[in-house]
Structures are given as structure tokens and as C-alpha cells.
Amino acid sequence: MDLWDVLSQAAWVVSAALLIWIVKDAISVSQQYDEEFLMSSREGDE
From the first residue on, what is the mean pLDDT of each consecutive set of 10 residues in the chain (46 residues)? Predict the structure, then answer.
């Protein structure tokens, strides 16, 4: 295995970790806020 193979595998690991993080965050946000709040365009109004 040369350096480029190792870097390629590392990039796949990082991208998989980012995907898991994004999905976990999306689920967390959808549980914390209702759909009406998420789809509203009220900026700065909490």
C-alpha cells in the first residue's frame, strides 16, 4: 500500500463519519423542533 491508497481510505472514513454526523444531527433537530418552525422564514424569532 502506498501513500495514496492510505489517503484514499482515510478520505472514505472521514466522509462516512461526516455522513453519520449529518444524519444524527438531522434526526436530533427534527426531534427538537416541529416542522412548522423549521419551515418558517422568521429570522431571529425564536
Answer: 95 98 96 86 66
